[in-house]
Amino acid sequence: MDTSGTITIFQVDAFADEPFKGNPAGVCILERPLDDVVMQNIAGEMNLSETAFAVPVAPGATIAGAFKFKLRWFTPTCEVDLCGHATLATAKILYDIFEVKHETIAFDSRSGELRVRRDNELIQLDFPAGDPQPTKLPDYYLNALGRYRTDLAEKVVAAARCTRTGILLVHLNDPDEVKKIAPDFADLVQAEDSFGSKGVCVTAAARQPYDFISRFFAPGLGINEDPVTGAAHTVLAPYWQAVLNKRKMTAFQASARGGEVLVEVHDDMGGHRRRVLISGKAVIVMEAVMKLSTA
Question: pLDDT tens for residues 57-110?
């Protein structure tokens, strides 16, 4: 990598077992960090929901020999605290392209240390569990979510907000209602700002073979609808564990691209710290050389 010249960048469809499904993420594996402005510009150029940048933590470590990496995620407009699908995509590149031999890879991130490991054909993410707390959904938020809908309030079973991530969860009474949601994104940006949320996840109990389905909207972060959202499942999993009394669940994010997510909620350190294991497949769809200067 030459910061004055070019870098190699990958595009990976995460939570998918074939190209053009799941959630595409950009991935840059670097030998040394890039400037924040450069990373933000690269994410804007990729114009994906997130682009991830990973650098070995240990000085002088090779990429193939590293166990721990510094990991950062950028949307087209800002840096974010947590991104599941881009973490999965990064692990896919490290395992398959750079042939990292460690069974488990650790990432230092703004959300603390995250670990991933191979699980046969799946890649499993070990993330901190969210803490969805019951909340009252303001009328303006409902109006932004249910553009041209006068009956949406009748479909809401419950609402909860995660204090750690800021994600708002809205539980609807029917999976078909989740699929019908058509927000007014300009109004939703204002609703997020007024309510203090960072994205809203609309969800419902699902029909077999899934336990629940969801859709995720975060226009305030530059993402109108995210195809498949690992971070949202850190909130969805503990919520649905309490509702369904199940620790292991199969979820489907019902975006246009769609994606299957396996989740497992468990306690660590004697129950003092809850974790969510999020598993999925990934497909590498592109490898390209990006010019960082016109020289």
Answer: 999 899 999 999 999 999 999 999 999 999 999 999 999 999 998 999 999 999
Say if residue 257 is in the same domain as residue 163.
Answer: yes
CATH of the domain at 114: 3.10.310.10
Residue 271, pLDDT above cutoff 80 = no
- Whether 215 and 261 map to the same domain: the answer is yes
Backbone torsions φ then ψ of 177, nearest 5 degrees: -65, -35
Residue 220 has φ and ψ, to the nearest 5°, of: -65, -20
Distance CA 287, CA 137 (A): 43
The torsion angles phi and psi of 240, rounded to 5 degrees, stand at -75, -25
Instruction: Provide the H-helix boundaries in 3-149.
Output: 36-46, 84-96, 139-145
Q: Encoding tokens for residue 129? A: 């569990």
Catalytic amino acids? Answer: 50
Q: Is residue 150 packed enough to be buried (19+ CB in 10 Å), middle (13-18) or exposed (0-12)?
A: exposed
Which distant-in-sequence residues (6+ apart) come within 8 Å of 268 by Cβ?
A: 274, 275
Spatial separation of the C-alpha atoms in residues 292 and 41, rounded to whole Å? 10
Which residues, listed in sequence order, are joined to residue 203 by a DSSP beta bridge? 171, 214
53: three-class secondary structure by DSSP: strand
- pTM score, whole prediction: 0.91
